[in-house]
Amino acid sequence: MTLRHTHTHMLPVQNRQIFFNVIQMKVALFVPCYVDQFYPQVAIATLELLEKLGVDVVYPESQTCCGQPMANSGFEHLTGGCNDNFVRNFSGYDYIVCPSGSCALHVKDHLHATDEKAAKEIRGKVYELVEFLTDIVKVENLTSRFRHKVGLHQSCHGQRGLKISQMSELVSPPFSKTEQLLHMVQDLELISLKRQDECCGFGGTFCVAEEAVSVKMGIDRVADHITHGASYITGNDMSCLMHLEGILRRQKSSVKVIHIAEILNSAE
């Protein structure tokens, strides 16, 4: 069952805990295609986490692809239908939250529609999940628990586009909004990596056009996490984690991938 067939009232409510005072904002949940089709648990974890924090979340059920795959392949001129549908579904909300840096960045930078005024307004309201939690909700503590050694993969769109973390090649003070949240999770051990912000090689259609290069880059990233003892690899983008998961499976590795929303929503 994908999230498109899951409604908020179907989720268990008896054990939900509100961590903070109810935040008076109406938020639309924007779910990427690959999450909806392959990793619906990530979308459900995002929804549950936001509701635990007191956020009023709505899932626009007629949402479809944001158009990023076409745009990245050089066919942005064919994304008009996707863009107009996005505007129809996501107009009128205070914020739009997405558990994906690449999709959020695409909408922020490239959403144009027949109703350009509405599109511009939406571009300013779209947030990737982590930046929404740190910059808008301003989460200061969590009661999440995750008893594992975790390696963090910094996705390129999140780091270099959304500025969720500092780039290591810059002579500037380091920061990571994702690490900031992970440090709030009880019993989680965040490991250090040798090349902490190196690309995994996924790159959307790049992994199709340059398969051999993409796989080699992914193998290098997986090796860094395994060498440093990770039991799980987490990140903000399930697309990158999907790429790494494929390599881990082919290597018959016991290391697993998990989206940060699942960790922040965990109570194990």
Task: Describe the 3D structure.
Pfam families: CCG (PF02754). This is L-lactate dehydrogenase complex protein LldE. The protein is α/β, with parallel strands linked by helices. It folds into two domains: 135 residues, Rossmann fold (3-Layer(aba) Sandwich); 116 residues, Rossmann fold. The protein contains 13 helices and eight strands. It has a four-stranded parallel beta sheet with strand order 2-1-3-4, sandwiched between helices. Strands 6-5-7-8 form a four-stranded parallel beta sheet. β7, α12 and β8 form a beta-alpha-beta unit. α11 packs across α12. The longest helix has 17 residues. It is globular, with a radius of gyration of 18 Å. The N terminus is likely disordered.
Q: Main attributes?
A:
L-lactate dehydrogenase complex protein LldE, Rossmann fold, 13 helices, four-stranded parallel β-sheet, oxidoreductase activity, single chain, Cys_rich_dom, 2 domains, 268 residues
Strands of the biggest beta sheet: in what spatial order? 2-1-3-4
Q: How would you sum up the global shape?
A: globular
- Summing up helix and strand content along with how strands pair, one would put the structural category as alpha/beta
CATH class of the largest domain: Alpha Beta
Q: Give the helix proportion (percent range).
A: 40-55%
The total of beta strands comes to 8
Number of separate structural domains? 2
